Amino acid sequence: MMRTTLLTAAILASSTAIASAEFQFSAYGGWQTAPHSLVTVTGIGAESFNAGWDGRSFEMPPYWGVRGTYWLERFNMPEWGVSVDFTHAKVYADAATFPKTDNWTRFEFSDGINILTVNAMRRFDRWNGFEPYVGVGAGLSIPHVEVTRPEGTTFNYQIGGAAFQAQVGANYYINDWLSVFGEYQFNYAMNNVTLTEGAKLETNIILNAFVAGVSVHF
Q1: What's phi and psi for 142, nearest 5 deg?
Q2: Is residue 88 part of a domain?
Q3: pTM
Q4: How remote is the C-alpha of 167 from its chain's centroid?
Q5: Cα(218)–Cα(212) distance, rounded to whole angstroms?
């Protein structure tokens, strides 16, 4: 009898702990821009220039992202959370960039400066359905490098280097399990990649985005 009682208590405690945990899955899209960045090529065909970037957020493939967040309710810290965020951003060298190069005809990361980060999240008291939050984290830049120049053509995914992310936004709860949100998102992507002909290309790109999305809470 005592063993059964202890087993039942353990199951109930475990169920309570699981129920107190809150997971949140979010999907978003939006408008993203990037300021100029210095591009340095070393090795074969070495050169250096300032690139201007177009975001083209609503052209295919569009700007989008997904995020999974675990709020630490079971640890009595419901205002804190940990998220994993994947952002598919992109940039295209603008028309003013190409005259600065040595006859490049293509320079873009249009299949993505894909950014994967782990973030610390902080949410604040809900007011009239609105729940503000902030987040900051670090991870990897995974660009799809698309360069065509006289020395060769590069068209592949690579690990570019470290990436850093920060966001500030607010959820609006439609009910206990569904919310919509708006957010400003900042990403800093370090890209040190290898071109097909063996040269190295380095550029660090800042991404500013205003996004909107939907979250499911369970």
Answers
A1: -125, 80
A2: yes
A3: 0.87
A4: 10
A5: 20
Asked if 99 and 83 touch (Cβ cutoff 8 Å), the reply is no
Over residues 163-177, the pLDDT tens digits come to 999 999 999 999 989
Distance CA 30, CA 213 (A): 8
Euclidean distance between CA atoms 76 and 80, whole angstroms: 9
Q: Does residue 12 lie in a domain region?
A: no
CA distance 23 to 178: 12
Q: Residue 2: inside a domain, yes or no?
A: no
**Could you tell me the residue range of the domain that residue 63 belongs to?**
21-217
Q: What is the pLDDT of residues 5-19, one digit of tens each?
A: 333 333 333 333 333
For residue 40, give the CATH number of its domain.
Answer: 2.40.160.20
For residue 69, count other CB atoms closer than 10 A to its CB.
Answer: 21
Torsion of CA 175, 177, 182, 187, to 10 degrees: 170
107: which strand partners? Answer: 147
